[in-house]
Amino acid sequence: MITWDVKITVLNKAERRASITATRRDDTDLEDIKLWSITLNTIIDTQAQKLSVMDFIWNSYQNNLAEQNALDTIVGSLEEQAKSNLEGRE
């Protein structure tokens, strides 16, 4: 199951500034639980600012996912190449 936990801490009430930490937990594979988290300090005075924060969190997660997938592709292909190469030397 994938869940998101969001914690908001008011930093400055007059400025409507808060620290927001969002954590995504993916435990669909109990042997490989994945966590991703981001913390940002921002102003959350208007609805537009609140929506902007949600967009920023989502886009940050998507960018991280794309980077991880690219890295997994590089590492995965290297693992296969190394395995084949080394076994071929036997």
Keywords:
alpha+beta, three-stranded antiparallel beta sheet, 34% strand, 90 residues, 1 helix
List the topology elements.
Elements: E1 2-12, E2 17-26, E3 34-43, H1 47-88
Antiparallel strand pairs: 1-2, 2-3
Description of the molecule:
Helix content is 47%, strand content 34%. By secondary structure, the chain is an alpha+beta fold. The chain has one domain (2-88). A hairpin with a 4-residue loop joins β1 and β2. The model has no long low-confidence stretch (mean pLDDT 94).
The structural class is alpha+beta
User: What is the share of helical residues?
Assistant: 40-55%
Helix tally equals 1
Q: What gap, in angstroms, lies between the N and C termini?
A: 44 Å
Count of spatially separate domains = 1
Low-confidence stretches: none
Q: How many E-type strands?
A: 3
Report a brief summary of the structure.
This protein has 90 residues and is an alpha+beta fold.
